[in-house]
Design brief:
By secondary structure, chain A is α/β, with parallel strands linked by helices. Chain A is built from 13 helices and 8 strands. Classes of the chains: A alpha/beta, B alpha+beta.
Chain lengths: ~250, ~525
């Protein structure tokens, strides 16, 4: 089981659209795939038309009184399931911190029993730096970091790389990619070209800022599903193709 | 975790055709579901479209008895095998160049996960087409108020065929649960169940197909399955039992003649041998003079089948035999295998001619007629005299005492013939036990048969090794006479014969251990418990 997590400390950078589309493409390729919507806002759940609610809330999941397995919902797409968001996830930091031992590795532990059932798991992480995100980083094999093309993004990526380098033992691989790229803006062009050339962790594929991607919230489906031949869908397919060999290692 | 599927059958005559929908009764069902759910057809859904598949099993239903269902799905090019348990696919593999209507030995399947899982179970039997279904599958999504798919309606319209018989199946409607939405699937199933003309169906499509063909799994077994009761007159019980054996024998004739696999002949021989033993041990319960003439005819049948079966045994065990070679190489034995195969072809022709002969037909026809007259005889005559249970107790007790006495007389120096003779008596005891199995307490029966089986295994090992060793000697002579025996082959055959001597010695030592366990005080006590009746 390979675990991918979309993470960025900032909100509104395209984490959820990436998680939803990449998980969809993974399933379309025949991999049994699970997407866990860890964001209490429940955007990924909304996009799959699934109610953002888990019986017993995050508490029941973290404490193990409800197995993750029982909370999973089938999406409308073959091989793709979703573990919905719940508003109580806003308190997940407290719940994870409740247990002093291995507080940063509980999500990894919760996912372990699903190893026989899924080949790929995607974690859609809320924007923050918290115990939840630290758990996600410990659980993930690959951290997918969407960056908006600004100089500040470079700083964010550096901070994250440094933070992960400080982990004892196993560390996730970091793969960043530019998201919400406006090709008409010279600054966007310069930053994406320069960084993907200079830093091997930054993918060559960029996800453009397109209204079709925003339309996902109207269609309530991955763009790769409702407009498979669109430039937006092609961009996600290219990104998946570029990152999936790296992710299939180990 | 696999979500549930609830399956229904649609009796098309009973469903009111909806207005403007022609006479499509499935549309009526969709209208009912459409009152509660959004209903969206999905033409390209996985698993939808035209479909043809053939269910396969061995003649004696080995896969079914293990809870497995094997399907051959016909594809545009070739096909694929799907192995399922409890409706969940366990393994699949592509197969090319096989017409699934033809039997095929499990070991002849190409390497793959399905072959791996069934080989041990099915060998040496062939996979036979049990039924073929052809038709179309359509998928409709059932949506909740958010437009989310919460269940699927799967409609399968198929016609089942087997041996030229074609039966249209009632359309099968399945409500497939989407994970995490069991309540919605239950609701859809409830709506379906309440629709006129829709009824709960066999969950397994295979069982539904067999049912349509008026077959059922396990409609063949090589065991003794006759239903007899304790108070049945002994003559009726014995006639019923012999008719059951005749059914088994006749069920195997076609498979033997088509040479589908070796076990048809094996089962035919066992039925013939059981018949001979029943005539010998219980024939006096039938009207005087009825059985004796047939004893000779069944001996003829047994003798007719022996040469081919002996060669089958050699060929089936060939790989194992060659694997035991130390000094010689397995390749040295190839001329021996070729010789055996040629010999089998010749012997099989004789066997087939015998089974097609008027003599065989007369034997089975007359024997059946005679037995039916006894079984169906009415009037006071059949109510008098000994019962089936009387016969069971007296003959089983007698056979046990005979085995105990003969076995006790055997010493480490006794001639092999004495052990062979004891093996025959043990077989007869086993048959008598099996014939009357329904009349015995199951636990006591299992204990006694378990003990006896162990003793039989060891006597069988002894005799088979000895017989095979002599046969290899005789076959070597014949190969020499036909100039078909290179020196390396003869040396390899010699090594095999030496291995068999070793096995004989081991089996003999084993007998010395096992016999006292079977016939000693504990064994006698178990037999006593088996044959004691509360009313006696």
């Amino acid at each position: 089981m390979k675990i991918y997590a979309t993470y960025n400390i900032k909100g509104g950078v395209g984490k959820t659209t990436a998680a939803v589309n990449l998980a969809y493409l993974s399933a379309a390729d025949g991999y049994r795939t699970l997407l866990w919507d860890l964001d209490p806002q429940g955007a990924a759940s909304f996009l799959f038309r699934i109610k953002p609610r888990v019986k017993g809330g995050g508490k029941a999941l973290i404490r193990g009184t409800k197995a993750l397995d029982d909370a999973i919902k089938g999406t409308d797409f073959e091989h793709l399931d979703l573990l919905p968001a719940d508003f109580t996830y806003r308190n997940m930091d407290l719940l994870l911190g409740d247990r002093d031992k291995k507080a940063t590795r509980q999500i990894a532990q919760l996912l372990r029993p699903l190893a026989g059932e899924y080949e790929h798991v995607f974690l859609d992480c809320p924007p923050s730096i918290s115990l939840v995100s630290e758990n996600v980083m410990h659980a993930a094999d690959v951290l997918l970091v969407p960056l908006i093309p600004t100089t500040l993004s470079v700083r964010t990526l550096d901070q994250l790389t440094e933070f992960v380098a400080g982990f004892d033992g196993r560390r996730p691989e970091i793969r960043a990619f530019f998201s919400m790229v406006d090709r008409r803006k010279r600054l966007h062009q310069e930053i994406t070209a320069q960084l993907s050339a200079e830093r091997p962790v930054v993918a060559a594929t960029t996800i453009p800022a397109l209204s079709l991607i925003e339309r996902m919230s109207v269609e309530r489906a991955p763009v790769a599903a409702f407009a498979p031949r669109s430039p937006a869908a092609r961009a996600f397919r290219a990104l998946w193709t570029e990152i999936s060999p790296a992710c299939s290692k180990g | 975790m696999t979500p549930d599927r609830r399956v229904f059958a649609l009796d098309e005559g009973d469903v009111p055709a909806p207005a403007g929908n022609g006479s499509n009764p499935v549309s009526a069902v969709l209208d009912v579901l459409g009152e509660t759910f959004g209903v969206v057809a999905e033409p390209g859904a996985p698993g939808s479209g035209a479909r043809q598949h053939t269910w396969l099993d061995t003649f004696d239903w080995r896969l079914n008895r293990a809870g497995l269902v094997l399907e051959y799905e016909h594809l545009r090019q070739g096909g694929r095998l799907l192995l399922s348990k409890d409706d969940v696919v366990q393994a699949e593999q592509p197969v090319t160049g096989w017409r699934s209507g033809r039997p095929r030995l499990a070991e002849d399947l190409p390497a793959g996960p399905v072959r791996d899982q069934i080989l041990k179970l099915a060998s040496p039997r062939a996979l036979l087409p049990m039924a073929t279904a052809a038709g179309t599958v359509s998928v409709t999504r059932l949506l909740n108020a958010d437009g989310k798919t919460v269940a699927q309606l799967i409609v399968d319209r198929s016609t089942v065929t087997q041996a030229g018989q074609a039966v249209p199946l009632a359309p099968r409607l399945a409500i497939a649960e989407v994970r995490g939405y069991p309540g919605q699937a239950r609701r859809a199933a409830r709506l379906l169940a309440e629709t006129p003309g829709v009824s709960a169906a066999q969950p397994s499509a295979f069982l539904a197909a067999l049912h349509a063909l008026r077959r059922h799994p396990d409609d063949y077994s090589n065991g003794v399955t006759t239903e007899i009761t304790a108070q049945m007159p002994a003559s009726v019980a014995v006639a019923t039992l012999l008719l059951g054996l005749l059914d088994t024998l006749e069920q195997n004739v076609d498979g033997v003649l088509r040479d589908i696999d070796t076990e048809f002949l094996h089962d035919l021989r066992v039925a013939a041998r059981r018949t001979r033993s029943a005539i010998k041990l219980l024939g006096d319960a039938l009207p005087a003079g009825l059985a004796a003439p047939y004893a000779a005819e069944f001996k003829w049948l047994g003798d007719l089948t022996t040469p081919t079966r002996d060669l089958d045994v050699h060929l089936l065990g060939f790989g194992a035999m060659a694997g035991q070679l130390v000094a010689a190489s397995p390749a040295d034995l190839e001329p021996f295998r070729a010789f055996l195969a040629r010999r089998r072809t010749r012997e099989f022709r004789r066997l087939a001619a015998g089974l097609r002969s008027a003599r065989f037909k007369t034997l089975t026809d007359h024997w059946r007629k005679a037995l039916l007259e006894v079984r169906d005889a009415a009037g006071p005559a059949r109510r008098r005299g000994v019962t089936a249970d009387d016969l069971a107790v007296s003959r089983t007790g007698r056979m046990f005492r005979r085995v105990a006495a003969q076995g006790a007389a055997i010493t480490p120096d006794s001639a092999p013939d004495l052990l062979h003779d004891l093996r025959k008596r043990c077989k007869e005891l086993r048959y008598v036990l099996e014939f009357f199995a329904p009349l015995h307490a199951p636990v006591a029966y299992r204990k006694v048969v378990g003990d006896l089986k162990q003793l039989q295994d060891c006597l069988g090992e002894f005799q088979d090794s000895e017989v095979q060793r002599h046969e290899i000697g005789a076959l070597a002579d014949e190969m020499l006479a036909e100039r078909a025996a290179p020196a390396a082959t003869l040396l390899a055959m010699g090594e095999i014969a030496a291995n068999l001597v070793h096995r004989e010695a081991e089996a003999r030592a084993d007998f010395a251990q096992r016999f006292p366990r079977f016939a000693g005080p504990a064994g006698q006590h178990r037999f006593h418990a088996l044959l004691t009746r509360p009313s006696r």
